[in-house]
From TrEMBL:
Listed name of the protein: Site-specific DNA-methyltransferase
Example of a GO biological process term: methylation
Keywords: Methyltransferase, Restriction system, S-adenosyl-L-methionine, Transferase
Domain DNA methylase N-4/N-6, residue spans: 76-305
Domain of life of the source: Bacteria
Recorded coiled-coil stretches: none
InterPro entries: DNA_methylase_N4/N6, N4/N6-MTase_EcoPI_Mod-like, SAM-dependent_MTases_sf
Protein's organism: Hornefia butyriciproducens
SUPFAM superfamilies, alphabetized: S-adenosyl-L-methionine-dependent methyltransferases (SSF53335)
Molecular function as annotated in GO: DNA binding; N-methyltransferase activity
Pfam families: N6_N4_Mtase
């Protein structure tokens, strides 16, 4: 493929795919920090919007959202970082018991080649346009592999006159070759839906020649350790480092984007209370940044590891959000039927002369039932060793709902692994109205295991 004629067919087939895609109902599975799950209310906003994380196929989610009138034209910012058509498989690098394991993150190989890749991307862009606000911007993050094709497709879908910028994100990391210059940048295409998009001009330093003062009349100059500079409107080439191996924000997820990059994007085209979306959310940088900056978010990914990485990241920063799963596939395959099993000890001790009790929950051993088929033997060996010697090293996060209703996990206690490790004991005082307790445990590979028990059983076991 390589002609304009082929691109026309891509768009036609993508439109047919959109028409044939059925919408689905997503079921709420989890609600974390409900009092914080809504963004700051803007003075001109009709209502606050809940932060939402979806686990499922993004095209079915997009179709479901676009079919509802109340969702169309509501997204102030859409940022997507889809696969780049690199024809490679990507692993997450995860630390377990002092060693690194490599876990499959996502596959960027396409059976139908470039044509199939562009058709899938275009179908999703068609639906995203329906959801983009008239004053919003969409940011499509790619690189040299297909950005030239994507530019033509975006011109067709959004209009040539609605092209706003091509941002060049340049960085130091990456390899180099002897047959070409080192490829050290990504391309981010920015489009609007109308001419009335929001844009907040950002400023950056511009150093004077030889770092000496100009002393021009009316021009304010500043000085730092390098020399003299002025503040100018930001250019379309952004020098931002990739997420380094020792970076505090590093999750280990493949192709993780830095928060500084997303902070700049969010700041330049949204205000507190605006709704942002990332339908290829990966490690969750956009929802993490949006929540911290007072914006609402919609995030989606079909990968178990991506979803749980995002949930853990949001929990660690105290964000509020809801988690939805696609029915029936993901509820049966990815959520309730786990690839691992954890031992959980629960006890309940009453207080003399009181109707309240102290609940103690302690994590025990871990058993991994099925390791990913694409995992290398070295990583499998590390995991098997951890199961025998330090099973809690395989747990990334866990949470407890002390008032489980049998449907939605609403934890009041959340524990996420950090540099100091992971707490393995939870204690909480409960009243006589405590009926059922649910514990959710996520391992380092994104697998989830639930244990829920009635309080009557916990009391009887303690006796």
């Amino acid at each position: 493929m390589g002609t304009l004629k082929d691109l026309t067919k891509v768009i036609e087939q993508a439109q047919r795919q959109v028409a044939n895609t059925g919408s689905v109902e997503f079921t709420m599975l989890e609600e974390v920090n409900p009092m914080k799950s809504r963004s700051v209310r803007r003075a001109d906003a009709e209502e606050c919007v809940d932060n939402k994380m979806y686990y499922g196929d993004n095209i079915r989610l997009l179709k479901s959202l676009a079919e509802r009138e109340e969702n169309r034209g509501k997204l102030k910012l859409i940022y997507i970082d889809p696969p780049f058509f690199s024809e490679a498989r990507y692993d997450a690098v995860i630390r377990v018991s002092g060693s690194n394991i490599r876990h499959p993150a996502y596959d960027d190989k396409w059976q139908q080649g470039l044509y199939g890749y562009l058709r899938q991307l275009t179908a999703r862009l068609i639906l995203m346009r329906e959801l983009l606000a008239d004053d919003g911007l969409i940011w499509l993050h790619l690189d040299w592999h297909v950005v030239h094709y994507a530019r033509i497709i975006m011109d067709e879908l959004f209009g040539e006159k609605n092209f706003v910028n091509e941002i060049i994100w340049t960085y130091k990391s990456g390899g180099s070759g002897r047959r070409r210059f080192a490829r050290k940048h990504d391309n981010i295409l920015v489009y609007s839906k109308t001419k009335h998009y929001t844009f907040n001009v950002l400023k950056e330093k511009s150093y004077n020649r030889q770092f000496k003062p100009y002393r021009f009349k009316g021009v304010k100059e500043y000085r730092d350790e390098l020399g003299w500079y002025t503040m100018v409107n930001m250019k379309d080439v952004w020098h931002i480092d990739m997420v380094g191996r020792t970076s505090a924000e590093r999750t280990g997820y493949a192709t993780q984007k830095p928060e500084q990059l997303l902070e700049r994007i969010v700041e330049c085209c949204t205000e507190p209370g605006d709704l942002c979306a990332d339908f290829f959310c990966g490690s969750g940088t956009l929802p993490a940044v949006a929540a911290r900056m007072g914006r609402s978010f919609i995030a989606c990914d079909r990968g178990r590891l991506a979803v749980e990485s995002t949930i853990g990241r949001l929990c660690a920063q105290g964000a509020g959000f809801r988690v939805y799963v696609e029915e029936p596939e993901h509820r049966t395959e990815g959520i309730r039927k786990s690839r691992f099993e954890a031992e959980v000890h629960m006890s309940m001790e009453g207080f003399p002369g009181s109707d309240k009790s102290l609940v103690t929950i302690r994590l025990g051993s871990v058993r991994e039932h099925r390791l990913p088929p694409g995992m290398e033997e070295k990583s499998r060996t590390v995991i098997r060793k951890a199961v025998r010697n330090s099973p809690l090293d395989l747990i990334e996060a866990w949470s407890v709902d002390f008032d489980y209703d049998g449907r939605v996990h609403r934890p009041s206690a959340v524990f996420v692994r950090n540099k100091k490790g992971l707490e393995d004991v939870c204690r909480q005082i409960v009243g006589p109205d405590c009926r059922r307790i649910c514990v959710k445990i996520a391992d380092v590979m994104g697998n989830v295991f639930y244990v829920d028990r009635p309080c009557t059983q916990i009391r009887s076991d303690a006796q």
